[in-house]
């Protein structure tokens, strides 16, 4: 530091000395040459001592556990999946008979039969049965869909034995009494009248009838119509129950905090007296794909409706089809999530609707693939044009690489969520059993769905989501919808009522 100051001061001192002596000042010394600055750290390439950054591999697919299958009393099949994290047990029993087996002209028999099962059973009437279930903190539900009928039970482990005794009465010993049937039928009739006032429910009824035809096993609503309900009597319910509900056709699925050793004696005491008839069990109905022709455009008149239900419908595939794995992911991309193409375009980009989406049937026979939205009536033309354009672009171009990755991630997340609660697991497995699928179906499907390549996804998108050959159903003001058909140069529409019947 001192040396530096001297070097800077020496020329000045020399100049003062020279003036004092009267001589000429010497020539100034040349300034010292500045040393070049050291190279900065950023200029030199840094050596990556750890090597290149590794790319993390794709995490393995979530493969859910499969239930153990064994024989129960009197030919019943039992699936058991133990989950001991919480002291809860959920059971679903199913028989492979549903609305597709309704007698001609009596649509809804499977539905009302399921509703009657818990309206008194064994030694208890309807009120006593309901109170006994509540006292145990349990829940029993009944339902029927197109392919099967179900009775479900959820209960704490400590009350499983007592709850199964009531559950067994509901399944094997329903009372099916006239007074309760009269009350249930009145409620059923009122529900059907209310359904006719709801545009979305009306659309579901109409496109099922129009696509499959009224004589197809899937060609009528599960809960029937006001006319078919009026034709159903208690004797129809008793005949349906006797034919459908028998132990050699039943599968019982139990999930939760129990073991086979605990469950088997309970099942014997609960279902041991439930005997199958001597006649062979009838095979489940396996509906065929609709053959058409179906109308390309259907209009259901709803005068003054502020919104129009728009649905693009075409035949789907059966749950046992090899295409079902890819279909799960394809449907997610086009309309099965909030960020899907349809919702992004019709809701986020244009504001035609509060929500647009798509869904498909999981059924024994080929079901439906439906893309739909409730759109502002005055924007129906633009919304229909946009929906058809989105479907065509999707069918022709397939999924983007981002959609391939996103649908895989969403499929994994949905499956993990479905296996968080025992009630959801037992319901999912019972649905598989009702369609004749094996106990390891969910595990097999998870692997196939996760591994489905883009080529398979694109092929399913082209086959099942193209608007070519599909049916467009609109529920709204007839005059405005006919103008939409004309503006978009669509085929002439078929006018239908709320039950799907042609209007002259």
Give a verbal description of the structure.
The chain is an alpha+beta fold and 504 residues long. The protein has 2 domains: 68-271, Metalloenzyme, LuxS/M16 peptidase-like (Cytochrome Bc1 Complex, Chain A, domain 1, 2-Layer Sandwich); 297-496, Metalloenzyme, LuxS/M16 peptidase-like (Cytochrome Bc1 Complex, Chain A, domain 1, 2-Layer Sandwich), CATH 3.30.830. It is 42% helix and 15% strand. The chain is built from 17 helices and 12 strands. It has helices at 2-21, 109-116, 126-135, 160-172, 178-195, 199-212, 226-231, 234-244, 260-271, 324-334, 341-349, 380-397, 401-418, 422-434, 441-451, 454-465, 478-487; strands at 68-71, 77-82, 88-95, 139-144, 149-156, 251-256, 297-301, 307-315, 353-360, 368-376, 471-476, 494-496. The longest helix has 20 residues, at 2-21. Residues 1-30 have low confidence and may be disordered.
CATH topology of the largest domain: Cytochrome Bc1 Complex, Chain A, domain 1
Structural class by helix and strand composition: alpha+beta
Largest sheet: 6 strands, mixed
Q: Which CATH first-tier class of the largest domain would you pick?
A: Alpha Beta
Beta strands, count: 12
Give me the CATH architecture of the largest domain, please: 2-Layer Sandwich
How many domains make up the 3D coordinates? 2
User: Averaged pLDDT, please?
Assistant: 91
Count of DSSP helices?
A: 17
Hey, roughly how much beta strand do the residues contain?
A: 15-25%
- Can you tell me the overall shape? globular
> For this structure, what is the CATH homologous superfamily of the largest domain?
Metalloenzyme, LuxS/M16 peptidase-like
């Amino acid at each position: 530091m001192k040396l530096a100051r001297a070097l800077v001061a020496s020329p000045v001192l020399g100049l003062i000395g020279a003036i004092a002596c009267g001589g000429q000042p010497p020539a100034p010394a040349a300034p010292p040459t500045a040393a070049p600055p050291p190279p900065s750290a950023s200029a030199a390439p840094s050596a990556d001592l750890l090597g290149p950054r590794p790319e993390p591999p794709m995490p393995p697919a979530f493969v859910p556990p499969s239930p153990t299958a064994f024989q129960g009393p009197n030919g019943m099949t039992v699936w058991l999946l133990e989950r001991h994290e919480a002291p809860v047990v959920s059971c679903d029993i199913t028989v492979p008979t549903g609305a597709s087996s309704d007698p001609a002209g009596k649509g809804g028999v499977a539905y009302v039969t399921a509703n009657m099962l818990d309206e008194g059973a064994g030694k208890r009437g309807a009120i006593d049965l309901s109170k006994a279930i509540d006292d145990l903190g349990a829940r029993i539900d009944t339902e029927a869909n197109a392919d099967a009928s179900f009775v479900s039970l959820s209960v704490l482990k400590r009350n499983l034995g007592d709850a199964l005794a009531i559950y067994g009465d509901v399944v094997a010993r329903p009372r099916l009494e006239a007074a309760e049937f009269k009350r249930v039928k009145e409620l059923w009739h009122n529900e059907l009248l209310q359904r006719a006032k709801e545009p979305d429910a009306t659309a579901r009824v109409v496109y099922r009838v129009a696509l499959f035809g009224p004589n197809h096993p899937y060609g009528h609503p599960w809960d029937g119509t006001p006319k078919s309900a009026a034709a159903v009597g208690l004797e129809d319910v008793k005949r349906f129950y006797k034919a459908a509900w028998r132990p050699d056709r039943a599968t019982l699925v139990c999930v939760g905090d129990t073991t086979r050793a605990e469950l088997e004696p309970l099942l014997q005491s609960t279902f041991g007296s439930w005997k199958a008839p001597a006649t062979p069990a009838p095979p489940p109905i396996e509906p065929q794909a609709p053959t058409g022709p179906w109308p390309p455009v259907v209009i259901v008149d709803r005068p003054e409706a502020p919104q129009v239900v728009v649905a693009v419908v075409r035949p789907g595939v059966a749950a046992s089809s090899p295409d079902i794995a890819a279909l799960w992911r394809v449907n997610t991309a086009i309309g099965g999530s909030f960020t899907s193409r349809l919702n992004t375009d019709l809701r986020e980009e244009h504001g035609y609707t509060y929500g647009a989406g798509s869904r498909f049937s999981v059924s024994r026979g080929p079901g439906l693939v439906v893309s739909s939205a409730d759109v502002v009536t005055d924007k129906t033309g633009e919304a229909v044009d946009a929906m058809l354009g989105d479907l065509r672009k999707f069918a022709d171009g397939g999924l983007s690489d981002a959609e391939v990755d996103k649908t895989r991630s969403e499929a994994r997340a949905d499956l993990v969520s479905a296996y968080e609660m025992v009630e959801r697991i037992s319901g999912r497995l019972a649905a598989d059993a009702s369609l004749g699928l094996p106990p390891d179906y969910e595990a097999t499907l998870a692997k196939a769905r996760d591994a489905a390549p883009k080529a398979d996804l694109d092929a399913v998108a082209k086959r099942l989501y193209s608007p070519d050959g599909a049916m467009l159903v609109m529920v709204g003001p007839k005059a405005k919808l006919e103008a939409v058909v004309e503006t978009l140069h669509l085929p002439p529409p078929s006018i239908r009522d709320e039950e799907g019947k042609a209007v002259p």
